[in-house]
From TrEMBL:
Keywords: Cell membrane, Membrane, Protein transport, Translocation, Transmembrane, Transmembrane helix, Transport. It is found in: Cell membrane. This is Unannotated protein. The lineage of its organism: unclassified sequences, metagenomes, ecological metagenomes. The keyword Transport applies. The chain crosses the membrane at residues 6-22. One of its GO terms (biological process) is protein transport. NCBIfam families: yajC. InterPro entries: Preprotein_translocase_YajC. Its main location: membrane.
């Protein structure tokens, strides 16, 4: 094989890495960091859209309080995002005003 034949293949591999693998790894690292800092009192949204407050973290499971006195358990992977205190109050206000 000559350099002219190898160069396009090498270029495709480098582009695949830069466009697909690298951003995916960065997203996974950010998700792991978010999960590592979960603590009781954190307001979260699950991947299914459920809002709740973390009451306990036990290994790869969390316990959420979704309403006063109503607690459910989720796997840690179900956490979609952690809400800021300002965002959490806005989301709660939207839910109560729409009901």
């Amino acid at each position: 094989m000559t350099l002219g034949q190898i160069l396009p293949i090498l270029l495709l591999v480098v582009m695949f890495y830069l466009l697909v693998l690298r951003p995916s790894r960065a997203r996974q690292a950010k998700q792991r960091a978010t999960m590592a800092q979960l603590a009781p009192g954190s307001r979260i949204v699950t991947t299914s859209g459920l809002l709740g407050t973390v009451t306990a973290v036990d290994g790869d499971e969390i316990e959420l309080e979704i309403s006063v006195g109503v607690r459910v358990r989720f796997v840690l992977a179900a956490v979609g995002r952690v809400l800021d205190p300002e965002t959490a109050s806005d989301a709660s206000d939207e839910l109560t005003s729409s009901v």
